[in-house]
Amino acid sequence: MGITVLQLHKRASYEFKHIQDKYAINSDKRTFALADGTTQSFNSEIWAEIITKGFVANPIFNSNELINSFKKQVEEYKSAKFEFSTNPAKASLEKAKQNKGGTATFIGLQFTEQNKLDIISCGDTNLFLLNSDNKIIPFPFGDVDSLDANNFFINTEQLLQNKIDETFFKQRTLECSPTDIVILATDALSRLILKNPSTITELLRINTFEQIHQFCLKYWENKELQEDDISAIIIPLNNLADLKIIHPPKDFSFPKEKEEEFIPTSLLQKNQRNYTDMEMNEIRNQFNGVAQDFHQVKKKLKLHEMLLMVAISLLMVNIFLMYLLRPSNAKGDDVKSKNKTENVVIQKYENKIDDLKSEIQSLKSKITDLTQPKEEQKEEKVEQNKPTPTISKEEAKKRQEELIKAGYKVSADGIWGAQSEKTWNEYQQKKKVQK
Amino acid sequence: MHDIRNLTISSTNPCLLVYLIDQSGSMNEKFGNASHTKAVEVTNAINDILYEVGLRCIGSGGELKNRFEIAIIGYGKQENVVQSGWEGQLSGKWVVSIKNIFEFPLGQENDKPIWIKPYSVSNTPMTKAFENAKRLCNDWINWGNHRDCHPPIIINITDGEATDAGSNFNALKSQVEQIKSLRTNYGSVSILNIHISTRAGDKLLFPSEVNNGDKFERLLFEMSTPLDENMIRIAQQKGYDIRHNAKGYVFNGNATDLINFLNIGTPQ
Asked: Which residues, 6+ apart, have CB-to-CB distance to A242 below 8 Å?
């Protein structure tokens, strides 16, 4: 196995081109450097790249000399072109950030001829020396707390203002054997290794991009690894000639998160606002417009309501008439029974009339048979016994007028009773006698 | 609970900052020995801290990452009224992402954007303001993946006694206790208090105890949560000598303390 460089950008950066960890390797000089550009500083990745490249080209392990070397490199950093945002608020931020300069951590090392390892460091990028007994020697930080307490960075403006001195740097020379492995790691990965040293074994097995991708995802999801750029340089001392770089492929990117605006629902109803007079007038006008529309709609609704009422009334009348004019059997039980009673009475009287008629008929025939000579007397008797015939009013009037002409004292009122019939029969008898 | 040291505040895991600003009439008094009022001082500090937050979120390509979502809640601009402190195009919004904050500033002063103006008008409905902050934090925590985010931080800036705190401040204390019980997978909501006064001297920064007889000073101290490790680290970096159990409370700090306090309360 040769030298392996593992790198993966943080998910929030989406693409590998935005990674701010930079490294440099000089195989001839057996020199390595790793720098972590801080997210919050201006063009920090450019600064990280400049200092790592500068170091491997000219490795310096004297703090003051290294500071001077970095100072000289600030000019190169400042010459990088940058286009400011068209948004004045954002441009103001960019200018302020530019004024604060670029910031990065740094670690540089060199293997010397006598199996020695010179290291110089500033910041929380860490080194782990793994020997053949699987013993881990960390440098400069041996635990998470001291790593987190780090407050040293290399900042371009501080360099120019001579605010960075040798106290910012930690230096050490380690004894090493050809079977040892050195791992350089930026802060997130260093923190994971310090907390859980067994992850080194896992890291050493990584041979493909997919493996480093899965490794990071696993620890990110478990919240054991900080969401940051991940960089490691694995250096087996027995093979400094071969180099394998494991980076994300060109088409690889992390998905962009959905930009959803958080709205506190429980405060919505409490949202109060002061309106200007103009806004109030606008609201009033809109309200009046709505009120007018509402009035029109109400009027139309009233008309519709009336039409509906008329239609319903007509329908009800119709139903009522249909009820009244329905076939008789459709009438109620009361009417039915009333009709029935009336029919029985009529039938009774009709039967009586029939009986009387047949009795008169039989009497008539008896008289005719027994007393033929005394026909007139008999007839008179019969006539007397006869019931008053029913005649029309006109006929009654006619007879009464005839009787008046004949000298009878009757009135021509059309009323024909038994007395009228008797008088009429006498007059008829008289007429017969005169003949 | 997850280790907060493994958490990076990012656009995928943002942090909510809630600033409660006293806009009561007494904020019209002079700030210490300065010629301007307390309301102006607080407004400047808030505008500055928004700018600082922007600096932490702008990427190399000029894009602003939504690492922070910010609420400004004003209380006392009208009698017993608590309302969003955002103005201009952000007016009426409760929470605004840092990206939108820089899209819609109110204007510019000295080549720097500003978002809010000073107000000092009515009484001090602080309990109501904390109640709103509670609802806001609760909604925020239960939104999307926010349970996997840094817990919200509430920073209250006031100069006086709440007018709606109830008997023995019980109503206010109750709201504060309810807020303290809200939590994400990385810890519970922090409450920090800046108590500004017209009194000169008697400065008290990040104390672990208060001996003063001022009952409201004691109340605000008790309401404040202890500083977490990150806050202690930043405070120490800024030169404050603080003890491990220091609380997020400042009494009578000057302008620098005010902005430093806001910075300390803003996770890195």
From this structure: A1, A2, A3
Q: So what's the ipTM on this one? A: 0.85
Determine whether A95 is exposed, middle or buried from the number of CB atoms within 10 Å of its CB (0-12, 13-18, 19+).
middle
* Residue pLDDT, tens place only, A304-341: 999 999 999 999 999 999 888 887 654 556 666 667 77
Return the SS3 of B228: coil
Using CB atoms, pick whichever of A12, A100, A148 lies closest to residue B10: A12
Residues of B in Cβ contact (< 8 Å) with A10: 8, 10
Neighbours of A418 (CB within 10 A): 11
Is B62 in Cβ contact with A94 (below 8 Å)?
Answer: yes
Cβ within 8 Å, pair A264-B58: no
Of B8, B69, B139, the CB nearest to A266: B139
User: Given an 8 Å threshold on Cβ–Cβ distance, is A18 in contact with B144?
Assistant: no
d(CA B30, CA B21): 16
Nearest to B136 among A84, A90, A267 (CB): A267
The contacts of residue A296 (CB under 8 Å, 6+ apart) are none
Place of tokens 């005839």: A402
In chain B, the residue whose alpha carbon lies closest to the alpha carbon of A152 is: B237
